[in-house]
Structure formats: structure tokens, C-alpha cells
Amino acid sequence: MNPAPFDTPALHIEVDGSPAADPELLATLMSGYGHFTAMQVRDGRVQGLGLHLDRLDRATRELFDRGLDGGRIRALIGGALEAAGRRDASARVYVYDGGRTVVTVRAPFPPDRTPRALRSVTYWRPAAHIKHLGGFGQTFHGEEARRAGFDEALLTAPDGEIAEGAVTNIAFWDGASVIWPSAPCLAGVTMSLLATRLPSTSRRVTMADVPSFRSAFVTSSRGIAPVSRIDGVELTVDETLMDRVYGAYEAAPWETV
């Protein structure tokens, strides 16, 4: 696999397989009632592609009371990649009522393993198990966290129970196993791939528990990064642990679009 050099993202958008007449306008309107998935494509392949397709189908059934043809979605992604002239890309699939499907393709995002500082906020996403549109709350809290000198917001309940990051899943390490918070959250594809390849458990985690953990990391469609701090609590960036986590993720098979 010979990835193309990472470059400035240029957005290519297709609606039901046809190029959008006004991509810039369409991009600004993608915040209504619907859901989506985001993936990194390398040499025309995606890790956990089947998980992406399954999640799209489940959310479509829940939101719109109809299934979604995974073969059609693969064809739409493949067509958009070909039209954009890319084998390596960041791709998204948006699904709206009536089965309308939008695929966006842009330059791939390079993995960023820089340790993250997280700021806790009292907010949980509605219907957190769906990767839905209209994420004003998480965007607002994420921007507020960055203005305060953090990298991302950590979403918690009023009693301090931890759910997820604003755009990530979070995992904690107790020295023996990976703990995924059991609060309502989106089961991200990267999280799902790791949970089957590392010793993992799911249980309630609160802000009061954070000092008892040795380390933590976050996962998203763009990759995995260690957590160096949550609010005022410093966490160890365990290179041995992270090498193990990265290795487990890299071992996940790539599926052809």
C-alpha cells in the first residue's frame, strides 16, 4: 500500500451517486435530521467497513423505519473515490429520510498521536448510540474546551459519570485491562475494533475515579491518542500500553470498498 501524500483537504460531494451542483452550499446544510459515519480510506480499503455498514443500517432502521443496502453504500463510496481521483481519503456517508445518501471525500487525515488534555463538561448527547447530525452541544463544548487550553471536551453527567469525548470514545487503563465507560455513548468503530483485541471491560466510571487509573486514551475515526490530563488530574502517557493499543488496531483487517 503506497498512500498518497497528505494534502490540503478539498471536499468532493455526491448525492445519490451524482456530484453535488453546489458543494459549498450543501456542506453548510448538513445539520438536519439524519445520521452519518466517518472513515479513513487507504488504497481503497477501510478498517471495520462492515461495522460502518452495520451501524448505518441500524440507525436508518431506527430513524426512518427502513433498511439500508450495504452493497449500494459500498458502490457509492467507491464511485465518489473514483470521481475524486483518490485511493486514500477521509470519507463520510450521510443518510437522510427517504434513503437519500450523501458521500463526501477529501484528503486523508494523518494519524495524530499527540497526548490530549480533556476538560470535563456536564453534557450527554441525545440518542448517544446514533452518530447523528446536529451536534451543536458537543461542538459548543468542544470549542469552549479549546479556548480554555484543552484539546477536547469530556462529556459527563451532573453526578460526574463519564460517557465519551465530544468527538471520541475514551478508555481507561487500570494496569490489567481497558475499561470503557458504560454510560450511553456512540460505540465507535475504532473502539469496537479495539474492544475485541484487547482485554476489555465496560463499567460505570466517574470523575472521582479518574485519579485511580494509571492511563487513558481516546479513539475516533482519525485514530488513537493517549490522554495526558483530565481537568487538573495528570495521567501517565504509558508508551508500552500505547504501543500495545496501536498494534491491536493495526492488526485489524482492511476491507475493500
What does this structure look like?
By secondary structure, the protein is α+β, with helices and mostly antiparallel strands. The chain is built from six helices and 16 strands. Strands 7, 8, 9, 10, 11, 12, 13, 14 and 15 form a nine-stranded mixed beta sheet that branches. The longest helix has 16 residues. The N terminus is likely disordered.
List the helices and strands and how they pair.
Blueprint: E1 12-15, E2 18-19, H1 23-29, E3 34-41, E4 45-47, H2 49-64, H3 70-84, E5 89-96, E6 101-106, E7 116-122, H4 136-147, E8 152-156, E9 162-165, E10 169-173, E11 178-181, H5 189-195, E12 200-203, E13 215-220, E14 223-230, E15 233-234, H6 239-250, E16 254-256
* Alpha-carbon Rg, integer: 18 Å
Largest sheet geometry: 9 strands, mixed
Average the pLDDT over all residues and give the rounded result: 92
Low-confidence stretches: 1-8
Helix tally equals 6
Key descriptive features of the protein:
globular; 257 residues; five-stranded antiparallel sheet; disordered N terminus; 6 helices; 27% helix; alpha+beta; nine-stranded mixed sheet; 31% strand
Brief sketch in words of this structure:
With 257 residues, the chain is of the alpha+beta class.
